[in-house]
From TrEMBL:
Residues 43-121 form the Ribosomal RNA large subunit methyltransferase M THUMP-like domain. SUPFAM superfamilies: S-adenosyl-L-methionine-dependent methyltransferases. InterPro entries: RlmM_THUMP-like, RNA_MeTrfase_FtsJ_dom, SAM-dependent_MTases_sf. This is 23S rRNA (Cytidine2498-2'-O)-methyltransferase. Pfam families: FtsJ, RLMM_N. Keywords: Methyltransferase, Transferase. Residues 144-236 form the Ribosomal RNA methyltransferase FtsJ domain. One of its GO terms (molecular function) is methyltransferase activity.
């Protein structure tokens, strides 16, 4: 999570320099309004209202706590205090009667029972979910947990309008390194017809959709006989090799858009990320819109989206 300095001039400059869409390793972007320590358990609301005095009205309130084992015990406090804080904010004129997605959001994040951060996020320059995490449930039919990575990528890296336009029934895609079929399964649920490339087996129910052709081939050497709408790839391989192969797909016109993962080394992840993204953009040889993010369901990797510019 990226917290911007509360100094207005500095925060404005950072806002311009670091738009949320360009951040790879941050799940959320907030402007810090106040840090409150030593909160009295008998009255946490009064110092919050005092700290927010002079702020413009917010559209919604998000009560948060760290997404960790240590932070889980704070969930009950955040929930119960939120129920009391909302009417107090409305009475003070700081919160509308109903959620308004056009106005900034107020975030109250507890890191301890007596320690909280107050922050603001702009709907157009932040993630819409608490803590920046889209909560996805593992579908019982999903062939593997990797399905959650592609589902999250489609929600995080594409806008609503882009999903409606770019994921339509009958579109054609290739899934490189598809076995056991998690990403292929996700694409079929969006109506796409998929060529699944892998020497390993796919789950039978993925093939039973009638939307999948399984070819036992090497994802690094196979190429489609005709251009496709999508290519996706979650192969375990050196990130630079993956970036180069993905660039070939875009350069040769084998697909219009792509989503792929880059498995990062344990050290110098940002340096490797920069190198791979620059290599991919350069070797693709065409104007592209490139978005990259380490998703909540990713591990030591980032997910990259490439669209025609």
């Amino acid at each position: 999570m990226l917290l911007l300095t509360p100094d207005p001039a500095d925060a404005d400059a950072l806002d311009r320099a670091l738009p949320f869409s360009t951040l790879v390793f941050a799940r959320q972007k907030l402007r810090l309004l106040a840090e409150l320590r030593g909160l009295d358990p008998g009255d946490r609301i009064t110092p919050m209202l005092q700290a927010l005095r002079g702020q413009a009205r917010f559209g919604t309130l998000l009560m948060e706590h760290p997404d960790s084992d240590a932070g889980k015990p704070l969930a009950g406090l955040a929930r119960s205090l939120g129920n009391a804080l909302r009417p107090a904010l409305r009475k003070a004129g700081l919160l509308g009667a109903q959620d308004d997605p056009r106005l900034p959001r107020l975030h109250v994040c507890f890191v301890a029972g007596d320690h909280a951060f107050l922050a603001r996020s702009l709907p157009a320059d932040s993630a819409p979910w608490p803590l920046g995490i889209p909560r996805l449930r593992m579908h019982p039919d999903a062939p593997s947990r990797s399905a959650l990575k592609l589902e999250e990528a489609l929600r995080v890296l594409l806008t609503d309008a882009e999903r409606a336009r770019l994921l339509q029934d009958g579109m054609r895609a290739a899934d490189l390194g598809a076995a056991p079929g998690g990403w292929t399964w996700v694409l079929t649920r969006h109506g796409l017809r998929v060529t699944a490339i892998d020497n390993g087996p796919l789950r039978p129910h993925v093939l039973d959709t009638g939307q999948v052709q399984h070819l036992r081939a090497d994802g690094f050497s196979w190429q489609p006989p005709q251009p496709l709408d999508w290519m996706v790839c979650d192969m375990v391989e050196q990130p630079r090799r993956v970036a180069e192969r993905m660039a070939t797909w875009l350069r040769e016109g084998w697909c219009r858009q792509a989503i792929f993962n880059l498995k990062l080394p344990m050290k110098k992840r940002w340096q490797e990320t920069q190198l791979c993204l620059e290599l991919f953009a350069r070797q693709a040889g065409r104007p592209l819109t490139i978005r990259a993010r380490q998703l909540y369901h990713d591990r030591e990797e980032i997910t990259v989206l490439a669209l025609p510019a």
